[in-house]
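[09:14] KT: can someone run the structure on this one? pasting the chain below
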Amino acid sequence: MPSVGSPATARQPTVLSVIIPAYNERATILHVLDRVTGSPQRPQVVVVDDGSTDGTADILREHVGTRWDNVVLCCHERNRGKGAAIRTALPHCDGQYILIQDADLEYDPAEYEQLLQPLLDGRADVVYGSRFIGGGPHRVHLFWHRVGNAILTTLSNMLTNLNLTDMEVCYKVFRADVLRAARLRCDRFDFEPEVTARIARMGCRVYEVPVSYSGRDYSEGKKVRWTDGIVALWTIVKCRILP
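[09:31] RB: done, C-alpha cells below
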C-alpha cells in the first residue's frame, strides 16, 4: 500500500492526528481536507484512499505534498472498507489523540475543539460525538436511518453497559494508545460497534459531546446500506462473546 507525504517518523509530535477514510469522494475530498488542515489545532492528517474508482486517488496524489504540508496519503489497491482504512492509517499517526473524520461534508471540523476538551482536561480516554443531544443544526431526513441507529445503539449499550446516545456517529476521538490497544479486526462499517465493544471491555472513560450533522442522501453519495445494519448487529453480539 503506497503512501505519499511525510512519514510519521519525520514529523514533530502533534496533539491531534485525523484519519480520513475516502472512497469515491472526488466531489468533496479537497474541501474536507482544506477545512481539516486549516483548523486551529493544525492536526496531522492521514487520508486513506480506499480503492476509489472515480479519480479520488488521482486528485489526492496531485495535491498531497504541494497543497498541504501536514497530510500523509495511503492508498488501497481495492476497496476494503472503513475499518481496514483506519488500521492502515494507524502506523502513520503521531498525534497524542486520534480523531476519525469522514471524507464527505456531513461533519464539521470546526467542532474539533469541543470534542477534544474532555481528553485535554484528563477526564476522558475516548470521546464520541452525538447527533442527538444538545444544540447544533441538523439536517432533517432519512427516518429509517434514525430508527436503525437507535436499535443498534440500544443493543450495543445493553451488551457493553455503556449509555451512549449515538454509537454509529462518525466523530470519535481516542487517546492514541487506547485505539492502538483495541485490537481492531473489522474491515467495514462494523468498525463502529467493534471499537465501542473494545473500549467498553478495556474500561475506558467515555464522554459524549453534541455535534451538528449535515447528512447526505443516497443521490449525494451516502454509502451506508441496510445490509450494514445487519452486519453491525452480528458484530455487537460477536464482540460480546469473543475475545
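[09:33] KT: thanks! The first strand starts at residue 3 and ends at 4.
[09:34] RB: yep, looked fine to me
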